[in-house]
Amino acid sequence: MGTILIFVCLFFIPDALTNTKEWTNFKEKFGKDYKSTLDEQRRFSIFQENLKIIEAHNEDYRNGKSTYYMGVNQFADMTQEEFINRLGPARNMDISGHSRIMDISTDDGNIPESIDWREIGAVTPVANQGECGSCYIYGALGSIESQHFLKSGKLINLSVQQILDCDEYNNGCIGGWPASVYKQIRENGAVLSEDYQSYQENVGQCQANGTLFKGIGYLSVPRNENALKTAVATYGPVSVEIDASYLNKYSGGVYFNASCNANMANHVLLVVGYGTENGQDYWLARNSWGTTFGIEGYVKMARNRNNNCAIANAPTLPIL
Ligand SMILES: *[C@@H]1O[C@H](CO)[C@@H](O)[C@H](O)[C@H]1NC(C)=O
Ligand SMILES: *[C@@H]1O[C@H](CO)[C@@H](O)[C@H](O)[C@H]1NC(C)=O
Ligand SMILES: *[C@@H]1O[C@H](CO)[C@@H](O)[C@H](O)[C@H]1NC(C)=O
After folding, report:
1. Which of 50, 248, 266, 287 is an active site residue?
2. Ligand 1 atom 2: the closest Cα is on which residue?
3. Residue 137 counted as domain residue
4. Which of 37, 58, 127, 251, by CA, is between 20 and 30 Å from 205?
5. How far is the C-alpha of 144 from the C-alpha of 116, rounded, in Å?
6. pTM across the whole model
7. What distance in Å separates the CA atoms of residue 127 and residue 291, rounded to the nearest whole number?
């Protein structure tokens, strides 16, 4: 009798019902508030589709067909198309006109096998860019903050909002390049975050030009993963541009997508180290999607797999 009852129950419970609890948890955890019942119904149905994708992918992960697993985060009520639109247009990264190419080529054998600059406190905390396409500012400022720490032993937070408001070389919340942020700071300076209005997720009136880091230099790392490794090991955290179109569901492991775009980028990360996990080489990168994304806000991107997702195409770093 008992067995039959269980069978009947499983058989008749529709997906919609089994996912209700997950939906409630999701809304609560990420503070989701929908405009109307209709809107919520639509988001719930997208959420359920995403759960199916996550489950199927994680089955592949368990069977060794993928090196990373997926999970529910703040993007789980968005379609893939909406997420890609949110990232903004993908761009080809020819940064040769922006900066000098760094004079390093390959690993000379003295470069460590793994490194994590967080271990000595050289990396500022994970932030959340929210609805504004300001990833390039988080990447660029993150690299300056780390360089400053490595020179002075002091960790400071620079104001992302001040760059958004005062920058002349990028496109505010539409997007930009780390190299152009270095150019802005070289000419107009930066300010500490405590000395400027808090982050607003949009561009406002420029309230004050900066005085910090005026005159800095910046370099492009040669476009290959060996040079990037050398740069990260010898200089510290480096900002990189990637194709992040399918990164939204990443939860852990080493992110690799064979179809990832090798030339176009739509997102910026801060590479703070590298290593190897379960035989997979990875770049350890800080993202700016809050700590609910990935591994406490970090992602391990495939390394030495033919420049996956274009990670070594446009690395840049400031010279303080
Ligand atoms: C930098 O900002 C983070 C939060 O984003 C905060 O936890 C930390 O204390 C700040 N550091 C300094 C030196 O102000
Ligand atoms: C910042 O500098 C620019 C360029 O020098 C200038 O046009 C602008 O008025 C300055 N803004 C403030 C708030 O000082
Ligand atoms: C990998 O990327 C391709 C397109 O670039 C996409 O169609 C596919 O869904 C992605 N795979 C995963 C598991 O996200």
Report:
1. 287
2. 157
3. yes
4. 127
5. 17
6. 0.92
7. 7
pLDDT single digits (tens) 182-196: 999 999 999 999 999
Query: Does residue 162 sit in the same domain as residue 293?
Result: yes
Domain with 50 in it: 2-66
What are the CA-CA distances from residue 232 to residues 130, 140, 142, 210 (Å)? 27, 14, 13, 27
Establish if 79 belongs to a structural domain: no
Number of helices (H), then strands (E), in the chain: 9, 12
pLDDT value at 124 more than 70: yes
Residue 104 has pLDDT above 80, yes or no: no
Residue 215 and residue 298 in one domain: yes
202 lines ligand 1 (CB under 6 A): no
Same domain, 58 and 160: no
State if residue 257 touches ligand 3 by the CB under 6 angstroms criterion: yes
In this predicted structure, the answer to whether residue 107 has a pLDDT above a threshold of 80 is: no
Q: Is residue 86 part of a domain?
A: no
